[in-house]
Amino acid sequence: MWQQPTSLFTDHYELTMLQASLHSGAAHRPSVFEAFARRLPEGRRYGVLAGTGRILEGLKEFRFGEEQLRFLSDTKVVDATTIKYLENFSFSGNIYGYAEGEIYFPYSPVMIVESTFAEACVLETFVLSALNHDSAIASAASRMIAAAGTRPCIEMGSRRTHEESAVAAARAAIIAGFDSTSNLEGGHRYGLKTVGTAAHSFTLLHDSERAAFQAQVDSMGVGTALLVDTYDVEQGVRTAVEVAGSELGAVRLDSGDLVEQARWVRTLLDDLGNENTRIMVTSDLDEYAIASLQSAPVDSYGVGTSLVTGSGHPTASMVYKLVSRHNDAGEFVDVAKAAKNKVSVGGRKYAVRQLDERGRATEELIGIGEIPETDANDRLLLEQFVVNGEINTDFTAASGVRRAVKRHRDSIKEMPGTSRRLQRGEPVIPTRFINED
Amino acid sequence: MWQQPTSLFTDHYELTMLQASLHSGAAHRPSVFEAFARRLPEGRRYGVLAGTGRILEGLKEFRFGEEQLRFLSDTKVVDATTIKYLENFSFSGNIYGYAEGEIYFPYSPVMIVESTFAEACVLETFVLSALNHDSAIASAASRMIAAAGTRPCIEMGSRRTHEESAVAAARAAIIAGFDSTSNLEGGHRYGLKTVGTAAHSFTLLHDSERAAFQAQVDSMGVGTALLVDTYDVEQGVRTAVEVAGSELGAVRLDSGDLVEQARWVRTLLDDLGNENTRIMVTSDLDEYAIASLQSAPVDSYGVGTSLVTGSGHPTASMVYKLVSRHNDAGEFVDVAKAAKNKVSVGGRKYAVRQLDERGRATEELIGIGEIPETDANDRLLLEQFVVNGEINTDFTAASGVRRAVKRHRDSIKEMPGTSRRLQRGEPVIPTRFINED
């Protein structure tokens, strides 16, 4: 999956902290770091966790090879003692967390890293990059799926975001329920279903729209989707049907008033005898546009920009905080920052999703210490992904994605119906803290 | 730079278009594609082009190796004829464009790709991913630099965006005038200056704030920056000065009301005899927060989330359009889509920045055909990056970044003073089209 070390996807200060703590000796204190979001984006009712599988894949490559060490040494980022420590670096601790695809709420401990301070500290930037990006996309995607109901959504935003973010975005979209993606590398790495037919340039390349449609049908068969809005939409639809006949798979609309257009294009297709030809729409859709198209005769949605930019919230505001560490007596001490407007809760957490007798989520229970007795329906949310440095590969690659798709579908089913509303509101279930101390 | 092929950072439909055009024969028509933005983000007065160097670096690796071809073949993305074509794929055309760091406006032809349809078509997604992401970041960064005046800005948003976007964002920020970045991979790949000291976790790791400061100073010297807001800021400053003495390099404030806090922390530092200790602030800054801090005694700004998410505009809305291609007679024909609300202008463009006698930009002139006579001051904006497939490496890697930094600085100097205003407005100079046809 990764063809290069991931170890320099790291903020400079992680390594200077490592250096200073090696110097003070505190680097080796057993520590617990926790990733969580203090809040959801304004008005959002839930978040969708994604990125975990990518973190586990990247963790395998989180090594400092000759090239990385030479860079750190030449540019004097750290001293010789630290370089020596990094030479042998390999994460040997435990990682727990919410399964990928799981729904989360403010303060849900979505990832817990237990190891020495040194080992957990240097992972911070990479862990947060993956969680913040991928969860932002999955959270937006899940709302689009809610808005689309039973109509399939196709991810096609690669060109609107960094080329590697595009791969991760395709993966996150599929986890949240998208049917497929345009991103080929996503297909290659994660076995995602990829789709696509043609753009306007293909029509413009040929001497006429008819010639372009003919070329496409000749090569891809009549089941393809023809893009009918390069010139005049009505003429485009008529030409498409003339060229492909009654078995034409779909027409795609990419501009104009899609609601109105879908209506008369549907009528026109039906009049021409193409009742089975589907209508796909793809112009700057977000969850609100999708909702407004629900009454229109549309068969599928292609979503680009708003998906890969998290529909107004391109990052998930997850943080990664030291919550507990050994003191000199070798006992764990809970720690938390006290600075204004950035509250953290110290201590190693557990998390339980409380469900009522019908299996409906009622509360996110987060606590420190012993897990209280739970009802039969309640779900413990923390799974273990890494055991003494050993990565559970069930959570990685294509199988990890399939597992996450199922996790998200199952988690959504548990949520109260209000979770599917697009209107702004509070988190759909409340979070309750229990602190035994 | 790239350790793996970039060829699958591509939308599925680019390859199905390739297949259908190989079938129709149009694949080999000489073609001109153009990348441009139809608009700037609302209220923005200029955009900053970035991503070009990364495209050129990726172009070298835009090959279809065994693994890529097997994927395309196994998943039936394209047919055997197309696989055969891709086996030997290597871009052999010409690429022109605005230099990286250059300012652009709506319809500026920021990149022009001349080759066969086949070769230019398959590059679309990768080209747009790099331009859209990197230009969004550079454009936001440039406004932050304007707001910061002579005070240095430090990029530290890696954790808020995908780990590879983070590297590209660091690079784009430096191009737009940032002093340095926290991103180590950015330092490694592009020779960017990296900086960093410590986070709250470092303080929490130790048994007291004093112990943590002592550890940091022991390891990094008194010139380091101490983070003083983990517990009580006033006590933090006093402890920092006690531990490091009068030569303490800086204190960092990361929470609370930064304007008010910077004032009294400055007074406190001065009273303690630390007139030379700088104040760095880092809490959720964007260009507006930076502007509001200009009257406060702050020495540098660390910028994270808002930078890497383009300060509200995470993508630059660049498109890549076929504007001209051969007909059967072997003559170039200008082409453009006619669909509603998505106007394109056909034809191979030139671009000139018109400057008055004092070297101030007055107009962006974009035309088709012969370039009109220009005044001595006017600047032709298109440079050639690729000549018959040969990449000019001056525009890549660390030297490319240095060149782009200079280009941006010089371009900004030419702009009217209003370009530096944060208020919403029209593009700072108008774009004029000349069409000789």
Short description:
The structure is a homodimer of 437-residue chains. With 437 residues, chain A is α/β, with parallel strands linked by helices.
Q: Keyphrases for this structure?
A:
six-stranded parallel β-sheet, Aldolase_TIM (chains A, B), 2 domains, 437 residues, nicotinate phosphoribosyltransferase activity (chains A, B), nicotinate phosphoribosyltransferase, 19 strands, homodimer, 15 helices, alpha/beta, seven-stranded antiparallel β-sheet, transferase (chains A, B), TIM Barrel, 37% helix
Name the beta content range of chain A: 15-25%
State the CATH topology of the largest domain in chain A.
nicotinate phosphoribosyltransferase
Instruction: Please tally the helical runs of chain A, counting DSSP H or I stretches of 4 or more residues.
Output: 15
Question: Biggest sheet of chain A, strands in spatial order?
Answer: 13-12-1-5-3-17-18
- The average pLDDT score of chain A comes to 95
Q: Class of the largest domain in chain A, according to the CATH hierarchy?
A: Alpha Beta
What structural class should be given to the helix and strand makeup of chain A? alpha/beta
Question: How far is the N terminus from the C terminus of chain A?
Answer: 43 Å
Name the CATH architecture of the largest domain in chain A: Alpha-Beta Barrel
